Amino acid sequence: MSPAAHVRSAPDRLVHKTVAAAVAESLRQRILIGELPPGTQLRQDALAEEFGISRIPIREALLQLEATGLIKIMPHRGAVVSGLSVEEVEDIFTLRVQLEPELLALSARRFSEENILELRSLTEEYSAALEAGEILRWGELNRRFHLDLLQHAERPRSLNIVAGLLQDCDRPTRLQLSASGDVARADREHREILALCEAGKIEAAADHLRSHIEHAAQSLIAIYRRALSA
Hints:
Blueprint: H1 3-32, E1 41-42, H2 44-51, H3 55-67, E2 71-74, E3 78-81, H4 86-107, H5 113-132, H6 135-150, H7 156-168, H8 170-180, H9 183-198, H10 202-229
Helix pairs in contact: 1-3, 4-7, 4-10, 5-6, 5-9, 6-7, 6-8, 8-10, 9-10
């Protein structure tokens, strides 16, 4: 390739990368809000037509999404939106029910006034995001609340496990809240758990957290099963 040709191609590559990043972000948001549910096939030619661009930046965008775990590029099927099976959801929530209440019972006894204020601020932020319909923030704020409740348990290995489980729950949590309409209940239960901790009713707070997780699991599994039978 001549030097002149190389100079001409560099801007083209930059344009492709910039366009690919924009496409990846658009698809990422659609996946996260459930517009593109797990199992959806993402065809390069259809996406190129939808976005009005060539397949080159589409291919790059799909590779970016695969790197984040949002899609899988599979032989003979192409790009498919990734997701959890019903069995995986049941396993994740079973582990959460086993671990989180026990960790809260250990953690809440060590709460300082500053910890309580931070948790209260987080519940307000979560409540505002729920009321405003900011779906992309729901999973992250829920994860932060649960981890902040447990962070003083002094059980680093268990906390690492829970952090991974909550990360896996990020998209399912948004799906459960948006599909079930349980936003008011989720907000109320977070506030009730914190209020019990503030009152020193640690075992009651742990029991309430257990019920909170169990209800979310039952609701989400029902949604998954309805989708499978549709």
